[in-house]
Specification:
about 30% strand; 4 helices; 2 domains; single chain
Length: about 220
């Protein structure tokens, strides 16, 4: 399974990758999960997902990228997650964090927030840590069990969620789940990860990944 970035054009998604709409569910100021809809588009067909943000047929491409002269140059530094992540130590779990991958999913904002919860043995706070670390769609946060040294990752199917962030009033990024290969327009193979978010507003400064620019885009308003 793979997603190929076309030059200044859409994401070409192989036909065996399910694409589903997913509505953000808010709880205590943050996001606690998604309400997932049925598969979008024709099953078992290659899909071209809009990358410029201006398609009148979202989430699919309608050729607007040509009309607006969309520049989809990939600006990500292409370093692997562990090369750029910062380690934050906690009581039960440590957290590896790469800020450039923040898509403002707000899973880390539930309750007292992941930052404070890391420094606690309380069961409720530990659940906040697990929700924030494993829920983060952009893969900005990866938890590490302090006892075993093992990373903690949710068991995800290989599929795509098209995030509809109703609480924020905007269409969100393309949430790529379960370890699907993303290939750059020049053939570069990005690190395969369990969770990444791809920009679909056309304004990210970290192309092809989301940097939450969609929250400032009128053309991504719901």
């Amino acid at each position: 399974m793979k997603i190929t970035i076309t030059k200044n054009g859409p994401f070409a998604v192989e036909k065996d990758v399910p694409v589903k709409e997913a509505v953000s569910v808010e709880k205590e100021g943050g996001v606690s999960g998604f309400e997932v809809q049925d598969e979008t588009g024709e099953p078992d067909t290659e899909k071209y997902l809009c990358r410029c943000g201006h398609s009148a047929n979202k989430p699919f491409c309608d050729g607007q990228h040509v009309k607006i002269g969309f520049d989809g140059t990939e600006t990500n530094n292409r370093k692997n997650f562990l090369e750029k992540a910062t380690l934050y130590r906690g009581k039960v779990y440590n957290a590896l964090v790469s800020e450039d991958l923040c898509a403002v999913g707000r899973f880390c904002d539930v309750g007292i927030g992941l930052g404070k919860a890391l420094d606690s043995y309380d069961e409720e706070d530990i659940n906040i840590v697990l929700n924030g670390g494993c829920g983060c769609p952009g893969g900005r946060i990866v938890l590490v069990d302090k006892k075993t040294g093992q990373t903690i990752e949710p068991d995800l199917e290989k599929e795509i969620y098209l995030i509809k962030d109703v609480p924020a009033g905007h269409l969100g990024p393309i949430y790529v789940r379960g370890g699907i290969q993303v290939i750059g327009a020049d053939g570069f193979e990005y690190e395969v990860r369990n969770r990444v978010t791809l920009c679909r507003c056309g304004e990210s400064s970290n192309m092809p990944f989301c940097d939450a620019s969609h929250l400032d885009c009128e053309h991504m308003e719901i």
